Amino acid sequence: MKLKKLTALTMTAALMLAAAGCGAVTTENENKSDGTDKSQETTSKEVKKDDELKIGFSNCSQDTPFFANMTPIIEDYAKEKGISVVSLNADNDIEKQNKDIQDLISQGINMLIINPVNEDGPSAGIEACKNAGIPVVTVDKNVKKDYTAWVGRDNIEMGRLVGEKLIEMLGGESATGTILEIQGTAGSTTMMNRRDGFHEAIDKVPGLKIVQSSYCDYDRSKAIPATQDLLQANKDVVAIFGHNDDMALGAAQVCAEQGFTDIIVCGVDGLMEAVLQIEDGKYACTASNDPVLLGQTAVDTAIKIFDGESVEEFVDAGTVVIDSSNVKDYADKELDFATMVK
User: How far does the signal peptide extend, from start to end residue (predicted)?
Assistant: First the structure.
C-alpha cells in the first residue's frame, strides 16, 4: 500500500475523526427523542469485546474499480495493525449479503465493516449483529438503522462541486446547451445524492438542460451504449456528467470515437485513469472519493469503538475537485485512485 503525507483537506477530515472524543458511540435507534440534534448529543452503547479485535468485512461487490479496491485496502491496513479481517463479496445480491453477514458472525467476528448493497437490503444481517452485540461500521454507503458509525463522504457536495466546476468550464451563468447525465444504480442513495447535488448547481443556469440516461449501475460497459443512444437523440450536447468516473470514461470513449471533441466530460471518484486523462487534456474534472483514506478510516473507527473510545455517528472523509489546475498533485501511475493520503 503506497502512502503519502496528508493534504490539508485530509488533515481536516482526520481532525474531525480525532475530535470525535466529544461524543459517545451511538446507533440511530438510541438517539434522544427530545428534538436534540443527534450529531451533537449521543448515548452510549455497550460493545461486545473479546481478547482480540476480529473484523468481518462485507463488500457489496467487486464489479467496479472502487469496490474492488476497498477489500485489499481494508485487509492490508488492518494487517499492518495486527488485526484479523475476514472478507466476503456480496456480488450486488442483497440476499447473499445477509447470508454473508451471518457467515461472518459464525466465524467469530466482533466487529462488522460493511459496504451495503443498498441502505435497505442488509437489514436482516445488521439486526443479527445487533442481537449478537457486534457493532457495525458502514463504509461508503450507509444503512438506515442499527449502525454505530458511518464512514463516508457527502455525495451531494461532490455532485454540486463538479456541477459548479463544469459551469465555470462552460463559460459561467451565460452557458447554454445540453448536458448528458449518465446515472448510477436505481434507488441508490449515492446515485440520488450525486444527482441532486449536480442538479442543484446546474439548475441555476437557465441556458443549460440536463438529459438523463437509463440506469447504468456504475458500469462502463453499460454507459457506452447509453451514451451512444443519448448522442444520437440529442443535439447541442456540450458536456457529459457520469455518476462515477468509470461510466464517464466510457462516455468519453464514445465521444472520441464519434468525433465529438468539444464535449466536456466529468465524473466522480478520482479514478486514476480519469486523473491521467485530465493531465492529458482529455477529461475535464472529477471529485475525489479516495478509497484508501475511506477504508483506512473505517478500520481506525472500528478500532476506536473496540477500545471503548467515542466516535461520531458520521465520519466525513472529505473530498476535493481535481482538474487541470491541481492534477499534478494527484496524478500517480502507481495508484488506482487519486489519494488524499500523502
Answer: 1-24
Q: Is residue 215 within 8 Å of residue 192, measured between CB atoms?
A: no
| Residue 172 to residue 25: CA distance in whole angstroms | 45
Inform me whether the pLDDT recorded for 25 exceeds 60: no
CB 141 within 8 A of CB 149: no
pLDDT in tens, 119-150: 888 999 999 999 999 999 999 999 999 999 99
* CA–CA–CA angle 115, 329, 199 (5° rounding): 55
Q: Are 269 and 288 in contact (CB under 8 A)?
A: yes
Give the start-end residues of each E strand in the chain: 54-59, 84-89, 111-114, 136-139, 149-152, 177-183, 208-215, 237-242, 264-269, 285-288, 314-316, 321-322
Total tally of structural domains belonging to the chain: 2
Say if CB 283 and CB 274 are below 8 A apart: yes
Full domain range(s) for residue 234: 155-288
3-state helix, strand and coil shares in percent for the chain, rounded to the nearest 5:
40, 20, 40
Same domain, 168 and 301: no
- The predicted-structure confidence for 216-263, as pLDDT tens digits, reads as follows 999 999 999 999 999 999 999 999 999 999 999 999 999 999 999 999
Q: What is this structure's pTM? A: 0.76
Widest Cα–Cα separation across the chain:
64
| Residue 16 half-sphere exposure toward CB, CA atoms < 13 A | 18
3-state secondary structure of 284: coil
